[in-house]
Write a sequence for this structure.
């Protein structure tokens, strides 16, 4: 037996026991005639004491231990003279009797501490050492715990986890499919699923009633900051349900996770906001509702005073930054620079301050009287000491810019605490998106999304106004997941295809397989999918999903540790009956 | 709301309640002025009654329902006149008040019954309909339940489920790797993992201590009867453990599954058998121990009587088929034909009968006296009415043949009840296998398998006799899983590579990445992997893994339902910078 206890479990009540621990040398230090060795494993750190007086040879061995060596120590648990209240094992130490080196270690390329001296690239290359850091390992422990609780909740609600295939078929829409040549079927390829959407709908046709899966999905796309070519979804689908049933069920899931993983009880129902309101009040379909600072529209108050910027603007919107009237010129210029950055793209920013004495100052006081400006601040319910920030321009673009400004102000004002969680359903998404370039409608989610039953009469007459039975779960400004009720009636589906400009042949070619299955008694059904990596990162309070993935890939889709992807042998290519066709 | 209850839950105590059910039409029949409709969902079947007298129009609608239509029915629960004791809902029926057709169905291509009229190919093509059959769905419910209980057990033992990557690197040994061209890294390929072996060992280096994962693995090989190109493993690894620790832990897992899924309590420890004994007694490293019929070796008793078949044989082995002395000439000929089939390859079979009166008959009585034959039957402890079957030849081959004969006799005698479970650890596998062709040793498992500590002194002097610290879990003659303690010491690993004829460069090229990681403090570790598909199929009492997989592939690796793999667009090939290179 290698150990009687882990390095995290001994307490004062164990004093006097002889124990054996095994783990990694975190650090060693000599003090007087004693050598202290901190031994570490997944469960904690325990201090070992080697006394030179008691056993000089043993102590000498301890002095020769290196960082990250793997050792086994037998000794007696004793109360510490100087206790460490920050360590669960901080009241005890082990007086060593035996020491065995199980394995040596070369000096690691960075320190194995929460605050490491290793840069990103080095940590990724030596990810197996990075994973020894308790903060990184903690993220993966959280991930395990969350996956476990998700399964516990869904199992208790009668959901069956069904594994859908990874080797599937490339779809005509599958521009970003990873493909896999088949040795047994030369010239033919499998594709890796971007989601199990088709299969989960088939399982509903099969009468599985409640399906879920925590499942890897794949997308071969240019990786933006926080995307991975392989990612994990919590994929769910239910039969014989309305939107309300789905929202209830998965609100329950999210609450279960917060309760059993984070010990946070959400007693009230999650707020629900229409997509239209989200865009109007926050300029985003995933508003961060940890703080208010909703948009205020001023267009009707700003016109006709000869200030062309506001006169010509389709939209004038403002937010109120509470207590920021004291912002200096420099601070205001910083904010102006922020909104003028190319990725945000505003032309400029206006402001109105209500000083502590109630007087008003503004960047546009040349054009507006104090009385006129007060109509603006009144509408926004801005008070003494508040700062009103105003953007103007084309509606959709300006809302987006104001959204960024709002988030920036939220961050500056410390209103976006990563340990505070604000959950929200966004509902009533539009069913269609109009594309100016191709002059036609596209499905905002996918072409199987059911229209809101109340809007069915608008399908032909006011297509763009039709709302979808689609919903997103938003937490702290992140889209945690989303889904929809699906169309299960053939006639309605045909109507949708027509509105999307798909001929019968097109529809058959693109979606025929699923449509054929639907001919054999498809039940009403709907569901949703959560991004599991994102879900974990939010609960971990992290901005990036990378550190909640054990072995992530970098922005070029490379695994720096194993150095993949890589070239393969000609013989392998030959067997697959393909060859390279590299462009210059 | 689509339903108040499922089709499986109403009982006599619900009589008088108004309920709404939704599901599929299993069958309709008219009797007198009434129409009976069986409505089905995942949870069961409920009988609906439409009374023509009460509502002729409603009853007429019911008469026009087709098989597998999706309907919603509201009505009152009533006690049945003629109860059906075979159905949990068999005491009640619903007196219908309302009927709504939620969806129609074309006539399905086969009947949705346990005993269906659909052939294999048809069922696979319409797998979404096949999955409606309760027997098939039951397998997947079992699979869900098992996965859930596996996680529950391992979580309770401190194992962390960690997702390892699916897009990894092709290894030099990876002749059967599926590869995935990378669009972002032209000319380079990922590979899909045949197992997460490297990653789980890295997680041990990372100090994760106890890891598991229920994970898809991939192998692009010619598919024998019961293999799938994608399959699921329960992959596990532990640090600071001996073989005994691993066996205890995973014996506990298997017992937990039997207990919580099949309600079978295994109180005794699972038997353990050395590989050598398994080969000697059963001719197999995965003996079916649901029945005895162990091999008896007769070589020392059979020589020198002028019967060259036995005189020249390296090995003479027998099994005793109890109570089969009455076998006719024809039955014996059938058995002889069985062992002579090319896939078994015996030259012939000999037999000795002990008749009920104690007299002995034998196919070799020309060469042996009754007294001589009686020394054979005595050794085999054969009694009156028993039949002894004898094969002879080269040891390894003959044992294999005798193994097949034993299994055949077990089946004929009804000793292989799929609902009886016999679990066994096979231990002490040889570390090396000698290959005559290349005249060198190969690792029987993989080159990281640790030698049995007691045999370390034999590594150079008697290499072939060295036992591995490797073990298999065998259930009913199936290898359910296996694993080993891994080598964690660099010196021993180098020694192994040398014995396997790998130069330092070879070893570095093939395994360098893992070996480098091992330089940074690898703990002693070991683990195992279970084949999850097989595990489920055994508990389901099925021979094949295909029906415990929701969407399996056929023997050509094809998904008949979605028709994958398939050709892809030239534009896709072009973007991946590869082209086809089809052989004639």
């Amino acid at each position: 037996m290698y150990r009687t206890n882990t390095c995290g479990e001994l307490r004062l009540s164990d004093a006097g026991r002889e124990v054996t621990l095994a783990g990694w040398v975190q650090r060693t230090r000599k003090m007087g005639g004693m050598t202290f060795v901190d031994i570490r494993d997944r469960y904690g750190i325990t201090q070992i004491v080697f006394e030179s007086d008691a056993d000089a040879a043993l102590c000498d061995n301890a002095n020769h231990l290196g960082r990250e060596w793997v050792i086994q120590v037998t000794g007696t648990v004793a109360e510490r003279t100087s206790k460490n209240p920050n360590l669960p094992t901080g009241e005890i130490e082990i007086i060593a009797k035996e020491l065995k080196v199980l394995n040596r270690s070369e000096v690691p390329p960075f320190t194995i501490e929460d605050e490491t001296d290793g840069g990103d690239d080095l940590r990724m290359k030596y990810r197996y050492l990075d994973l020894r850091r308790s903060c990184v390992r903690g993220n993966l422990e959280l991930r395990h715990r969350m996956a476990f609780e998700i399964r516990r909740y869904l199992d208790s609600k009668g959901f069956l986890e069904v594994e859908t295939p990874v080797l599937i078929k490339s779809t005509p829409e599958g521009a970003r499919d990873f493909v896999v040549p088949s040795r047994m079927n030369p010239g033919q390829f499998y594709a890796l699923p971007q989601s199990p959407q088709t299969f989960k709908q088939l399982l509903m046709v099969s009468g599985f009633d409640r399906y879920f899966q925590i499942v890897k999905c794949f997308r071969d796309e240019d990786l933006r900051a926080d995307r991975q070519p392989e990612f994990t979804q919590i994929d769910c689908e239910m039969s014989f349900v309305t939107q309300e049933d789905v929202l209830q069920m998965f609100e329950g899931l999210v609450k279960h996770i917060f309760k059993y993983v984070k010990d946070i009880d959400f007693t009230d129902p999650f707020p629900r906001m229409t997509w239209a309101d989200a865009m109007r009040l926050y300029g985003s379909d995933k508003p961060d509702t940890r703080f208010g600072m909703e948009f205020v529209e001023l267009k009707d108050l700003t016109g006709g005073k000869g200030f062309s910027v506001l006169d010509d603007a389709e939209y004038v919107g403002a937010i109120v930054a509470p207590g920021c009237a004291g912002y200096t010129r420099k601070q205001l210029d910083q904010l102006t620079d922020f909104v003028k950055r190319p990725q945000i793209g505003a032309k400029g920013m206006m402001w109105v301050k209500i000083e502590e004495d109630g007087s008003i100052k503004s960047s546009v006081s040349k054009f507006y009287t104090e009385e006129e400006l007060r109509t603006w601040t009144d509408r926004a319910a801005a008070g003494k000491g508040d700062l009103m920030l105003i953007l103007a321009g084309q509606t959709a673009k300006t809302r987006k810019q104001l959204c960024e400004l709002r988030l920036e102000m939220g961050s500056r004002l410390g209103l976006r605490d990563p340990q505070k969680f604000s959950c929200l359903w966004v509902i009533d998404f539009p069913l269609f998106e109009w594309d100016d370039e191709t002059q036609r409608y596209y499905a905002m989610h996918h072409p199987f999304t059911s229209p809101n039953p109340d809007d069915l009469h608008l399908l032909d007459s006011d297509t763009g106004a039709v709302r979808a039975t689609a919903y997103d779960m938003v937490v702290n400004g992140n889209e945690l997941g989303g889904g929809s009720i699906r169309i299960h009636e053939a006639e309605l589906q045909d109507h949708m295809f027509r509105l999307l400009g798909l001929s019968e042949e097109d529809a058959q070619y693109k979606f025929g397989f699923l449509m054929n299955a639907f001919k054999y008694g498809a039940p009403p059904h709907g569901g949703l999918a959560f991004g599991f990596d994102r879900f974990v990162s939010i609960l971990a309070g992290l901005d990036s999903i990378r550190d909640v993935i054990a072995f992530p890939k970098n922005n070029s889709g490379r695994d720096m540790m194993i150095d993949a992807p890589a070239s393969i042998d000609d013989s392998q290519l030959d067997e697959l009956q393909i060859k390279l066709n590299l462009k210059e």
In short: Residues 135-266+530-574 of chain A form a domain with the BirA Bifunctional Protein; domain 2 fold (CATH 3.30.930.10).
